[in-house]
Amino acid sequence: MAIKLQQAEQKDLVGSIQRYFKENMEEPIGDLKAGMLLDFCLQVIGPAIYNQAIADAQAHMEAKVADLSVECYEESGSYWKKK
User: Fold this and answer.
1) Which of 21, 30, 66, 78 shows the greatest Cβ crowding within 10 Å of its Cβ?
2) What is the pLDDT along the chain (83 residues), one digit of tens a residue?
């Protein structure tokens, strides 16, 4: 599954790559090369990050579902105990 970004987000990320190169590398990087680097990162690094995010979300949801019996438990037959 390819990771697709919104056009505005992609533009912001290209700008961020260009800023990084300007501040940390010996020469700046243009729009085309920055876009190609972003595409490379999305194709090569993106899936590993995405898969980890899905695993984290799944673990979080499984923990929440496991807590349902504690969080949503209501003792039956409690009407007569209140009186």
Assistant:
1) 21
2) 778 899 999 999 999 999 999 999 999 999 999 999 999 999 999 999 999 999 999 999 999 888 887 777 777 877 777 66
Share in percent of the chain as helix, strand, coil (round to 5): 75, 0, 25
For the record, the structure tokens of 37 come out as 């680097």
Of the candidates 58, 42, 60, the residue with the CA atom closest to the CA atom of residue 6: 42
pTM for the structure as a whole: 0.71
Question: Helices 46-66 and 31-44 meet at what angle, rounded to 10?
Answer: 50
Instruction: Decide if 32 contacts 38 (C-beta within 8 A).
Output: no
